[in-house]
Write a structure and sequence with these properties.
The strands form four sheets. This protein has a six-stranded mixed beta sheet with strand order 6-7-8-3-9-10, sandwiched between helices. It is of the alpha/beta class. The protein is built from 17 helices and 16 strands. The chain has two domains: 245 residues, P-loop containing nucleotide triphosphate hydrolases (Rossmann fold, 3-Layer(aba) Sandwich), CATH 3.40.50; 107 residues, CBS-domain, CATH 3.10.580.10. The relative contact order is 0.10. The chain starts with a strand and ends with a helix. It binds adenosine-5'-triphosphate and magnesium ion. Magnesium ion binds next to helix 1.
């Protein structure tokens, strides 16, 4: 665990970049520092590996002050990744990645073997090993940066806006890869970004900082979305908080029906029977392997099996992977579906059922109820209610109602 304990950084010119910041960064998870430009994110990150020396408070790594060990030993236990990767331009990719192992005295072959293993792990083709950084795309360079930081297998990874310089599509891929690598390696990652969506996607815990290096809120992303501590956090989170929060609710418990599903090789009698049984004007047609082909229109029922013409189908839209994707995905599928029904598939893309907007809305209400109305009241709202209770029970009641309504 990394404990940041009342840490302050005052630069020599008097700028207070970080002010009495306290955070407990748990092991084996991703903690994101997010906030507007100049709020002290980079300063905080660099104080952890002592590239910037703090001027107040203390930082503990596994219970020991970071000043208790030589700075080089401290930095060896912490990989560091920056925007634009910061690669050595005169070294090949493989030698860039092998930098730290070589510094640690590994022989060249062993260090290069490790580097090649890591290239594979971060999704870089082996054919790029002998190239120089300028011969790689921005996204590829960023992967090299991650591989280099992992080379000596440090328990801690510090990442400062590592994906900010790449386009949104590559960025999404890199984010997904980081989550995949993290699931395998379980590092303690401190990740800096100014992008709240990136913070919500990657963070197990998210610290929102405000200008002047003050902590505005420290919470899991789900809680941040449901109960922002104040107007600053709420504003920083932006719109659609409710919809975005649905990405933390699994689709696993969603009620599905198979009644309107029918295979393409069904007889007219079967189509008529299905139409009657489902009571729906639409049937979802699947191929013989169970994969969705599209929805039949209302005319299909009237015309019987003769209407099962693939050419006349309405598109089934994007299906969601049942149990793997979230209620947000399911809702999105239903909203985009021409019939208002979302199609649920298994890992292999075969239909397991369909579900309506109404059923999804019920599941959302159920998920909210399970987690405490529209989310547990934030710590500050709870504290305010407790404080008011000491003064006047009537105020306490109205405050509690208010915090629930967040
Ligand atoms: N060496 C320095 N001397 C004086 N002030 C500094 C120094 N480095 C940073 N600052 C100031 O400290 C504050 C925090 O800077 P920092 O780089 O930590 O912000 P940041 O949150 O990483 O911003 P960004 O999102 O733009 O990267 C800013 O006001 C900055 O101008
Ligand atoms: Mg910065």
């Amino acid at each position: 665990m990394i404990q940041i304990d009342s840490v302050t950084k005052r630069y020599p010119d008097g700028t207070v970049a970080v002010d009495e910041l306290s955070l407990e960064i748990p092991d084996g998870s991703i903690t994101v520092l997010v906030g507007p430009s100049g709020c002290g994110k980079t300063t905080t990150l660099r104080m952890i590996n002592r590239m910037v020396e703090l001027t107040g408070g203390r930082i503990l790594l596994d219970g020991a002050d970071i000043h208790a060990q030589p700075v080089n030993a401290l930095r060896r236990s912490m990989g560091y990744v920056i925007q634009n990767a910061g690669l050595f331009q005169h070294r090949t990719i493989v030698d860039n990645i092998a930098t730290v192992p070589r510094m640690l005295g590994w022989d060249r072959d062993r260090a290069r073997k490790r580097a090649r293993d890591l290239m594979d792990r971060v999704g870089l083709d082996a054919s790029l090993a002998k190239r120089y950084p300028y011969q790689l795309s921005g996204g590829q360079q960023q992967r090299v940066g991650v591989a280099r930081a992992l080379a000596a297998d440090p328990p801690v990874l510090l990442m400062d806006e590592p994906f900010s310089a790449v386009d949104p599509i590559v960025r999404k891929v890199l984010q997904a890869e980081l989550l995949r690598i993290q699931a395998e390696l379980g590092k303690t990652i401190v990740f800096v970004t100014h992008d709240i969506d990136e913070a919500i996607k990657l963070g197990d815990m998210v610290a929102v900082l405000r200008t002047g290096g003050k902590l505005a809120q420290y919470a899991p992303p789900d809680e941040l979305l449901s109960a922002p501590a104040d107007a600053f956090v709420e504003d920083f989170l932006g719109t659609d908080r409710g919809i975005r929060r649905l990405s933390f609710f699994t689709s696993a418990g969603l009620e599905l029906t198979t009644a309107p599903i029918i295979a393409v090789d069904s007889s007219a009698a079967q189509v008529a029977e299905r139409t009657k049984a489902s009571g729906a004007p639409y049937l979802l047609l699947t191929d013989t392997d169970g994969k969705p082909l599209g929805w039949t229109g209302p005319a299909a029922a009237a015309k019987g099996g003769a209407a099962l013409s693939v050419a006349e189908l309405l598109p089934h839209g994007r299906p969601f992977v049942f149990g793997k994707e979230s209620l947000r995905d399911a809702l999105d599928c239903a909203v985009l579906s021409p019939t208002g029904w979302a199609v649920a598939v298994d890992d292999g893309g075969r239909v397991v059922g369909v579900t309506s907007q109404t059923t999804i809305a019920e599941a959302i209400r159920g998920a909210h109820a399970e987690r405490g109305a529209a989310g547990s009241p934030s710590a500050s709202a709870k504290a305010a209610a407790a404080e008011a209770a000491a003064v006047d029970p009537a105020i306490a009641e109205s405050k509690a109602a208010e915090s629930k309504a967040v």
